[in-house]
Fold these 3 entries.
Entry 1:
Amino acid sequence: MNIKMVDLKGQYDKIKTEIDEGIQGVIDTTSFINGPKVQEFTINLSNYLEGVNVVPCANGTDALQIALMALDLKSGDEVIVPAHTYAATAEVIALLKLKPVFVDVNPEDFNIDVSLIEEKISPKTKAIIPVHLYGQCADMELIMSIASKHKLFVVEDTAQAIGAVYTYSDGKKAIAGTIGDIGTTSFFPSKNLGCYGDGGALFVKDNELAKKCKMIANHGQSIKYKHEIVGCNSRLDSIQAAILDVKLKYLDDYSAARQNAAKIYDELLNNIKEIKIPKISQNSTHVYHQYTLVIEESLDRNAMQAFLKEKGIPTMIYYPIPIHKQQAYINECTDKDSFPVTEKLAELVLSLPIHTEITREEQEFVVSSIKEFLKN
């Protein structure tokens, strides 16, 4: 079988006419930068997010950087981040001469362990960046409570969870990325809402803060050649916006397809004692950007991955080297810092193929191959 980790071609074939028309429309107008399609997509995404301001930008990393720039943090200020995440989350903090402060994650849903946040707060702490990992929200109600208590900003990294819905203890619901002061996302092609290049966006509730983010993304100007603040050059081009505007209409369908695929995996894997299937948080829906297993310690996770590769089955390890052990960030940690869950996950996690086009037959082959490995 030709199993793919992400089947962008299969997804494109189903909406080819709409995508091609959108791209051609941009070419016909030759409005390639900040054209009408960018504005149209921005409005439509804002409507999807129930009215939150949307500021498009060049990529998800830029979105995080622009968010922190807009909050006027000073050199040496500390920003709390989960230890189990992609390097970009800490990268933008370091680039702005801020200090990333790592917190271990919850072994059940792999998001930041809220019970460990307060012990990492110091007088220099100014913000928390919860990462909604693999497709479901961190415990935002508790995070926002801690942030309010200590007067901290919250920037949600929603790159893996766009479309997920968080439910508060009182039953109120909110879409991922719209709860904190600023939400950020990536439109990298493999994301649940992905373009055919690079792209990103910020979600901002406060109108004035949204204007500031927009200025920062455009060289610090709201009027051409009038630079009021230091900014950067980070734009979502019109062709990518046209693609995203088409795919946005199908985002809920894409989420449902991923959720259905996850249910099939759950059904097929549930009775395998050597494997822990993903656990869905009580407070969040899961849009399964990744379907990530935790492999029993007695097994050789890397050997399993190699065996599946021989069978033509792609898998991924998110993430094989924790940030606090990366050379670029190793000096940020002290001797007393401890991240046992993150370090264990780096050794044991394995993400299986999951996407909008995957078939049950393909999933059955993946699981039968896993069972074959376990018998050897």
Entry 2:
Amino acid sequence: MKNLPSLRHLMGFEAAARHGNFSRAAQELCLSQSAISHQVQQLEEQLDQPLFHRVGRGVELTMAGEVLLLAVQKSLTTLETGLQRIATYMAPGLVVVVAPAALMQGWIAPQMEAAQEADPQLLPVLSTDETARFIDEVDVDIHISNRPLQQADLHEQVLFRDVYLVVAAKVLAAKLMGQQLPQQYALAGMLCLEKSLSDDLLGPLMRDELAGFRKLAIYDDMRLLLDALRRGRGVACVPYSAIASELASGQIQVLPGYRQVAGETWWIARASGATRSPHVVQVFDALCAAASEIVPISTTQF
């Protein structure tokens, strides 16, 4: 078929098939019965197939009509879902923030919840799709990453400098604190991120002070390591940004006596001109303000 049937004709057909009656279909669509009848007739002529049998004062679908009804209802559902998604993205308080997953979960998400408490109209869309590297008025409002985007017409600045901390879940930390290193080594194991083992900055720490811990598991995804850390499986060396909220609540605690290593420098960016709404600038400023209030764990190494 070269030309698809008119959406109006398909909607008239779908209503008639669902009701089994042209009059009720017309009432639903605020049309006349003759208009529904004309739409169905045109559709049948285009398809060269009868779609209904007359039964008393109503109609029943032919075999071709039943096949078409299933296809039309599925298509209309898909179309309605798409329109609802578009409507969501037109919400006046919507702000799309893109950042790495660990940073998003550990630091950004709690900040967005606080911002939403201050402004209930705010609708954050939090994405960890790091391939989305361009700020525009449709897809991305605020981008946070470990390097500047260097895109034209951006307002971009350093958000904060991260730091790697040796930590454990609350119960395990209580068990280790007050113990000398040899005793700590015997009481716990080490959860390792694969890339940390060969990292130029973390390598010396992993091979020196933390080498006495037996390696319990090695992960290639920070989220897997963090899950095991939260469950008290072992000690880990992780960035502050990934566990900030849990450090604040005391669920995860820093183990004293271990070096702290400077981590990523996080950059934040938004459009320098007009933004989707004033909420974008509001969220950008709120994140920058929260970052400025981060209290260094170690004033000499943060």
Entry 3:
Amino acid sequence: MSEEPSNMYDEFRHGYTQASGVRLHYVERGEDNASGKRLVILLHGFPECWYSWRHQLIALSENYHVVAPDLRGYNLSDKPSRISDYKLGEIVQDVRALIGHFGKSEAGIVGHDWGAAVAWELARESPAVVWKLAALQVPPLAAWRANFTFDQLLRSWYMFFFQLPRIPEWWLGANDFAAIERSLKQTTAKRNVFTDTDIAIYKAALREPGALTAAINYYRANLSTLLRRRPGQSDASEELSVVRVPTLFIYGEKDFAILPETVRGVDRFVKAPYTEVRIKQSNHWVQQESPAEVNRALLDFFDRV
């Protein structure tokens, strides 16, 4: 884990915007759009918040105006009550609105976990608003479906568990989020990556009223989308599944949740310049476990003409 001085975080600016009927909280660093710097938006996953991008906010902001929102349902952003409010399409609309909030017609989009799923869908549906795409750990939906195996089904057990009402919230929240702390500190990341301070920040975000249920609702709203192919079509050849913007895919090869075979052949679904970076020593939380490698890959990718 890189050692950034704590006062660097004091330079993060907090703000809010209205997007698709929800109020989104975001953190930004780097000069705003008046400077002419290009906009880069960082999208987190489960069960995190903007803070998962603390290293990237610092590293990227010298060259870019960098924004990390709390996705709807998380931390200080609004938490709609319906499960359907967390479908991927709703989150995609939020990101599109966030780009407009900063007076831009396009942005570089970086996503991890659920944030990566959103980033892929935004780039697929609206390539004009994504000047470059970087996805961490999660492949595009078409690759996920095409590569899905019985072994991946077993690794994805929690997605099915999260379909139950109330029980997942009870389990994850029990004993001050002990299951999440144990996961981050002992089982799903390199040792000593997450400090007590980091864990406390994530717990505080999940204690926000409605946040834990909202986070789980991403799985409840989108499980069928993750598993279902479009009728009569193969994802491997489906024209509508193709992403047509320059793309970087970063994958930590020790991922506990997403197997290497599940991210096989991601380049088949990108009809644009494509770069893939594998980080052998990293688990799922790659931008926090290997920030130097991830930052270098992102800067190389975004700086490339």
